[in-house]
Amino acid sequence: xxxxxxxxxxxxxxxxxxxxxxxxxxxxxxxxxxxxxxxxxxxxxxxxxxxxxxxxxxxxxxxxxxxxxxxxxxxxxxxxxxxxxxxxxxxxxxxxxxxxxxxxxxxxxxxxxxxxxxxxxxxxxxxxxxxxxxxxxxxxxxxxxxxxxxxxxxxxxxxxxxxxxxxxxxxxxxxxxxxxxxxxx
Length: 185
Hints:
Elements: E1 4-6, E2 13-15, H1 22-25, H2 71-93, H3 96-99, H4 107-123, H5 127-131, E3 134-138, H6 147-157, H7 160-163, H8 172-177, E4 179-183
Antiparallel strand pairs: 1-2, 3-4
Helix pairs in contact: 2-4, 4-6
Transmembrane segments: 71-95, 107-132
Protein name: RDD family protein
Keywords: Membrane, Transmembrane, Transmembrane helix
């Protein structure tokens, strides 16, 4: 039996290795996992290529007009919408919308709801979306109509549904209403 040297401390001292029984010294043979005597091993479906780009599964082009809008453009549009709503609310109701309490504290949200709903129904995008050059369209290519922009903005004002991003960068309101936010340029 050979001696090994322990080097974990300042002083080197000999250490004897632990002797194992013979059955533990032999390597363990690899066995194939079995599903049981009555069931054959399951076959996995063939691996398919993932979608080549976001928006491919819903028929949108990779780039250019009607391609899927980026998250950055959507966030920039929301910031632009909120900033414009703040300016309008301050102009109409005064500075108390920023610091006050009661009904005036909700006026920025009310102005946002009105401008986003009306502009989306009329032009296909809110103020911030028009600046960011993105817009809202239906997946089936039909016009948005009046109720979809109002429903989408109302759900967006609740905040929680917009935090749930699903497949193809679509929020819960987009999934419910059959819409998607696309590039205009």
